[in-house]
Design a protein that fits this description.
single chain; 132 residues; mainly alpha; 5 helices; 74% helix; elongated
């Protein structure tokens, strides 16, 4: 693989990881701004994560998404959550909302690590090219 192709692929990977992490960060920030209530959580998920699919996420995050987000919402793991998720979340008790928020925080942490790993890989590749 040529150096420029490798560099382009790494840049694309970094940007994809950043964009995905930013969606989760924005979702959690909107929940916090709304006071963590059912309406705030439902609105934030609908606005920021409704188009998210499990296959976009790193493998570790996919498991969390499927088992702790999609399944409790009775949503398909292979398709985006959709509008129905918001109405389901609005009916949840606070314990279930807290579990959803915890799962989203875990996914955000995984995405942040994936972004950092991709940036580190790009840096190591650049250093390797410079000294080879």
């Amino acid at each position: 693989m040529s150096a420029s192709l490798q560099q382009a692929l790494l840049a694309e990977r970094i940007e994809a990881a950043r964009a995905l992490r930013e969606r989760f960060t924005a979702c959690l920030a909107a929940m916090e701004a709304g006071g963590w209530g059912a309406e705030a959580v439902a609105t934030a998920v609908a606005r920021h994560l409704a188009t998210t699919r499990a296959d976009e996420l790193p493998l570790e995050a996919q498991t969390i998404w499927v088992e702790r987000i999609a399944r409790p919402l009775k949503a398909s793991a292979t398709r985006p959550l959709g509008a129905r998720a918001g109405s389901t979340i609005r009916s949840w008790p606070s314990a279930r909302l807290n579990a959803l928020v915890d799962a989203l925080r875990e996914i955000e942490a995984i995405l942040a690590k994936a972004e950092t790993d991709a940036m580190n890989e790009a840096i190591y590749a650049e250093i390797s090219r410079a000294y080879s």
